[in-house]
């Protein structure tokens, strides 16, 4: 059972890693879209910025939310507890 969960976790980790990389890259591309709109100016710039804001950004937000759920699923399946403090053994603390 643990081996199966580990395999599923590994697949989810790959999906999460590549997906977040793509979403971050797409989010960075919006910067260049706004710069291009600044250079073009006028009504065209307004239409470009409106399209980026109303059509492109919501897709990026939804995709990143789904990918974060993949990341949490990966942590859950692997048994990782990244956001909780670890309890240290009293003996180990005394030896340090």
Describe it for me?
The chain has helices at residues 2-40, 42-78, 90-95. The chain is built from three helices and no strands. The model has no long low-confidence stretch (mean pLDDT 84). By secondary structure, it is mostly helical. Helices cover 85% and strands 0% of the residues. Helix 1 (2-40) packs antiparallel against helix 2 (42-78). The chain is elongated.
Unreliable parts: none
Oligomer: single chain
User: Which bin fits the share of residues in helices?
Assistant: over 70%
Helix segment tally: 3
Radius of gyration, taken over Cα atoms and rounded to an integer in Å: 21 Å
The helix-strand sequence is HHH
Instruction: Provide the residue-averaged pLDDT.
Output: 84
Name the shape in a single word. Answer: elongated
Instruction: Tell me how many strands there are.
Output: 0
* Structural class estimated from helices and strands: mainly alpha
Beta fraction of the residues?
A: under 5%
* Cα separation of the termini: 38 Å
Biggest sheet layout: none
């Amino acid at each position: 059972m643990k081996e199966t969960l580990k395999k599923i976790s590994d697949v989810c980790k790959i999906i999460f890693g590549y997906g977040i990389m793509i979403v971050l890259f797409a989010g960075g591309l919006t910067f260049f879209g706004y710069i291009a709109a600044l250079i073009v100016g006028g009504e065209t710039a307004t239409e470009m910025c409106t399209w980026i804001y109303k059509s492109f950004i919501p897709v990026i937000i939804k995709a990143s939310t789904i990918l974060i759920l993949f990341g949490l699923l990966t942590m859950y399946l692997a048994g990782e507890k990244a956001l909780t403090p670890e309890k240290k053994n009293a003996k180990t603390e005394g030896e340090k």
